[in-house]
């Protein structure tokens, strides 16, 4: 039974109990991720106080600057999940390739693969703007031993669970294990996540779009026409739309999930596959949005159907309210 005092851990366990033959390992793994995110949340809140800001001087595998908090979040998630013993491979945006985990670390069958973006929106850290962690969980295909690259490169529709944590005005964790989308708010005083959104559904149609419009000149004609369309007056279709863009995908997505909206990071003249990563960003959010009644496409195809060929693969992403994504698709298909 759900009530105001339902904690994240209790909810996860009750959800898994409904699945015939479940062993409780997925609950434990989600619990490990929640624990890691609580540790990261604490560090994010301290970031303005201690001398942690600034660059390490390193670059991640995408050739972008890495800030200290990215490294911290990555190490924290990796260490806690390794000790937890339920994952046979970890794939992170901040790692060159996947991290295989041997059975010696586990008393269990360590049957899961976890993909994660340890810190999303990291360019916003210094400005005290919301950032987050995104994660995605698959079952291994191989039978035993450390996970393999084939285990790690599965289609998005094979995810068994996914979610994110936003470090914002409060810390909120949102997850799905394939039975709806649920959100929990962290009480920092006692370190416990309490349910705040049960069975979240994204409004079918919205009045908000989220896009980096500075890229307008680089977009395809179809993309330009769609954004022009959203700005025109038309009472019947609720136009013009409002524009909201934080620049942290996780924060833009969370707002759109609650209030309705469409987020777009399309391909452009320079970046043929857009900017966002299929495995760490697009797939987990696509699983969540579909569970909430929304839609996620790359312009033409469903995100969850994309065949992954490399861990750091990028994809255009159009995600959010169902009807808005369908309208965008009509414009983009003409390209
Ligand atoms: P990350 O911090 O993990 O590298 O992700 C940044 C991403 C995403 O959070 C955001 O939506 C997008 O970059 C913003 O890109 P632009 O600055 O090009 O708009
Ligand atoms: Mn990111
Ligand atoms: Mn990141």
Describe the overall structure.
The protein is of the alpha+beta class and 335 residues long. The chain folds into two domains: 8-197, Fructose-1,6-Bisphosphatase, subunit A, domain 1 (Fructose-1,6-Bisphosphatase, Chain A, domain 1, 2-Layer Sandwich); 208-332, D-Maltodextrin-Binding Protein, domain 2 (3-Layer(aba) Sandwich), CATH 3.40.190. Helices cover 30% and strands 23% of the residues. The chain contains eight helices and 15 strands. It has helices at 8-17, 25-46, 68-84, 149-152, 221-231, 249-259, 278-291, 322-333, and strands spanning 55-59, 65-67, 87-92, 99-100, 112-120, 131-139, 161-167, 171-176, 181-187, 192-197, 208-210, 242-243, 262-265, 295-297, 317-320. The strands form three sheets. The protein has an eight-stranded mixed β-sheet, sandwiched between helices. Strand 7 (161-167) and strand 8 form a beta hairpin. Helix 1 runs antiparallel to helix 2 (25-46), helix 2 packs antiparallel against helix 3 and helix 5 crosses helix 8. The longest helix has 22 residues, at 25-46. The N and C termini lie far apart (49 Å). The mean pLDDT is 93. 2,5-anhydro-1,6-di-O-phosphono-D-glucitol (AHG) binds next to strand 5.
CATH class value of the largest domain: Alpha Beta
The CATH superfamily of the largest domain turns out to be: Fructose-1,6-Bisphosphatase, subunit A, domain 1
Count of DSSP strands? 15
Ligand types: 2,5-anhydro-1,6-di-O-phosphono-D-glucitol, manganese (II) ion
Spans of at least 5 consecutive residues with low confidence: none
Instruction: Note the beta-strand portion.
Output: 15-25%
Helix content: 25-40%
Q: Given the structure, what is the number of helices? A: 8
Q: Return the CATH architecture of the largest domain.
A: 2-Layer Sandwich
List the strand order in the largest sheet. 4-3-5-6-7-8-9-10
Average pLDDT, all residues: 93
């Amino acid at each position: 039974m759900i009530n105001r005092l339902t904690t994240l851990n209790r909810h996860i366990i009750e959800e898994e109990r409904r699945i015939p033959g479940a062993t409780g390992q997925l609950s434990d793994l989600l619990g490990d991720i929640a624990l890691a995110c609580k540790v990261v949340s604490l560090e994010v809140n301290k970031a303005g106080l201690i001398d942690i800001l600034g660059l390490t001087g390193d670059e991640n595998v995408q050739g972008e600057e890495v800030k200290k908090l990215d490294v911290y979040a990555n190490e924290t998630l990796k260490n806690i999940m390794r000790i937890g013993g339920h994952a046979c491979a970890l794939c992170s945006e901040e790692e060159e390739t996947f991290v295989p985990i041997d059975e010696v670390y586990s008393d269990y069958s360590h049957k899961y693969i976890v993909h994660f973006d340890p810190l999303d929106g990291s360019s916003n850290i210094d400005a005290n703007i919301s950032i987050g962690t995104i994660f995605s969980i698959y079952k291994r295909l191989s039978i035993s031993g450390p996970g393999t690259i084939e285990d790690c490169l599965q289609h998005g529709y094979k995810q068994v669970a996914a979610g994110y944590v936003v470090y914002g005005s409060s810390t909120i964790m949102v997850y799905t294990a394939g039975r709806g989308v649920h959100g929990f708010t962290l009480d920092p005083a006692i370190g416990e996540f309490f349910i705040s959104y049960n069975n979240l559904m994204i409004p079918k149609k919205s009045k908000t779009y989220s896009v980096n419009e500075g890229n307008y000149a680089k977009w395809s004609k179809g993309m330009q026409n769609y954004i022009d369309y959203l700005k025109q007056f038309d009472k019947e279709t609720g136009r013009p739309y409002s524009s909201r863009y934080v620049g942290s995908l996780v924060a833009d997505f969370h707002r759109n999930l609650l209030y309705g909206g469409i987020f777009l990071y399309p391909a452009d003249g320079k970046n043929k596959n857009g900017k966002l990563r299929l495995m760490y960003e697009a797939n987990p959010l696509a699983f969540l949005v579909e569970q909430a009644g929304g839609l996620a496409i790359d312009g033409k195809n469903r995100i969850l159907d994309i065949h992954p060929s490399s861990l750091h693969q990028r994809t255009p992403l159009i995600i959010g309210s169902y009807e808005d994504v369908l309208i965008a698709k009509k414009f983009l298909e003409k390209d």
